[in-house]
Each structure stands twice: as structure tokens, then as C-alpha cells.
Amino acid sequence: MKNATRIALVMLAIAIPAFFGIKKLRTNKPSQHAAIPAINPATAAYNERVIDTAVSLLRSGYLILRIGIGADSYILSQMNLHDKTYSHCGIVMIENGKPYIYHSIGGEDNPDERLRRDEARFFCSPQHNLGLAIVSYDLDSTQVSALHKVVEDYYRLRPKFDMKFDLATDDQLYCAEFVYKAMNKTMKDTAYIKTNTLYGHRYVGVDNLFINPHAHIIWKTKFK
């Protein structure tokens, strides 16, 4: 993709949600008059195995990525400069023996638009998603514990989704911004995860979170 086209798409990704709201871009839900397609048992069984595998691999401090099927997911994926595969992300924490995903999301899937804590199986649902990936960071057990505290502190504040994609404020966070700030705060390093700048707008793309020296994709898949 030529640089001019890439820059235009990225700025579109930043501008459209701010002006119209992500919920107005949702196109993946059928109308009330649309026929509901039959569920293929083989496909359902395959997707269930995918979720089982994903959940079994999750560890505290991991990052989980997904790509949705709606127009909002496509637009958000265009904020990525190097790998446009994924549009959403969350931090994994094992609590009471179960993996939970902390993530910031807006739109009609999250009406109050506040930071969420969802069970991993719910987060990984194929209902509106095309695929998943799991990312590990080079954190030791002490750093994972510190990250857990940082994540819990953010969750207590329940910041709203940041429709302006503005890194300057902490009371509103978009998904990649939440991970970026939580990781950098934990590591006490403002450059642990780096940012992008286009036309004077500084932001974090989802790919910034896994295309860096500290992160490794350990598993990825697509749903049927």
C-alpha cells in the first residue's frame, strides 16, 4: 500500500469513530427481518475446540488479540502500520483459577463504554469475530504481579472508551491505549511499548503491542 493511501486510511480510522461513534459503524448484526443462517455442527464443533485451546494457553500477563467482522473492526485495524490483522486486544489475568480479559471497548457491544472484565470464553466468542492470537511478554513473576495491580487500579476507575484516541488523558482509554499504558506503567519505561505519529497525532496501534522486542505471538487461529 502506498504511503499516502496508508496515511489516509489511518486518519480515517482515527477521525470516523470520533465524529460518528463506533456503534454507528456496526454492520455485522443482521436486521430483524434477515433470515438467521443455520449453524453447521462441524463448524460449531471446530470453533469450540479453538476456544478450548485458546483458554488453555492463557496465562496472567499475556495479551489476547482478536479481529471482528464489522466495519468498526476494519477501520480500527487500519490504525496498524505494519500488521493489520487484529483490531482489538485485552490483558489476561488468571483469577480464582479462571482466565479473565481486561479490555476497553465501545459501541453497542458495551453500552456504558467502560473498561470491561470478561471471562475468556466470552471474549473469544466467534459470534462477531474472525480470529484470535495470544501474545506473551518477557515479564517475570514479580512484573506480572505488578501488572495485575496496575490493571486492577484501572478497573476500579472504570475509564470510558476514548472516542478521540487521545493518549494525553487517562480517564478515557481505547483498547491499545489501555494495554500500552498498563505495560509501560508496570515496567516504569515510557518506551517499553512505542507509539506512532501521523500528521502530528500520536497514537498506539494494536500491532505496536506485539511487533516489539518484548512480545511474541505464541498462537493464532481463524474461526470457520
Give a verbal description of the structure:
The protein is α+β, with helices and mostly antiparallel strands and 224 residues long. It has one domain: endopeptidase domain like (from Nostoc punctiforme) (endopeptidase fold (from Nostoc punctiforme)), CATH 3.90.1720.10. It is built from six helices and eight strands. The chain has a six-stranded antiparallel sheet with strand order 4-3-2-1-5-8, sandwiched between helices. Helix 5 packs across helix 6. The protein is globular. Mean pLDDT is 87; it is low at 1-5 and 15-36.
DSSP, total strands = 8
Biggest sheet: strands, sense, closure?
A: 6 strands, antiparallel
Order of helices and strands: HHEHEEEHEHHEEE
Which strands sit side by side, in order, in the main sheet? 4-3-2-1-5-8
Helix count, DSSP H or I runs of 4 or more residues: 6
Please give the alpha-carbon distance between the first and last residues: 28 Å
Mean pLDDT: 87
Structural class computed from helices and strand pairing: alpha+beta
Domain module tally? 1
Using the 3D structure, state the CATH architecture: Alpha-Beta Complex
CATH topology descriptor: endopeptidase fold (from Nostoc punctiforme)
Unreliable stretches: 1-5, 15-36
Our Rg estimate from Cα atoms comes to 17 Å
Shape: globular
Given this structure, which CATH class is correct? Alpha Beta
User: What percentage of amino acids are in beta strands?
Assistant: 15-25%
How helical, in percent, are the residues?
25-40%
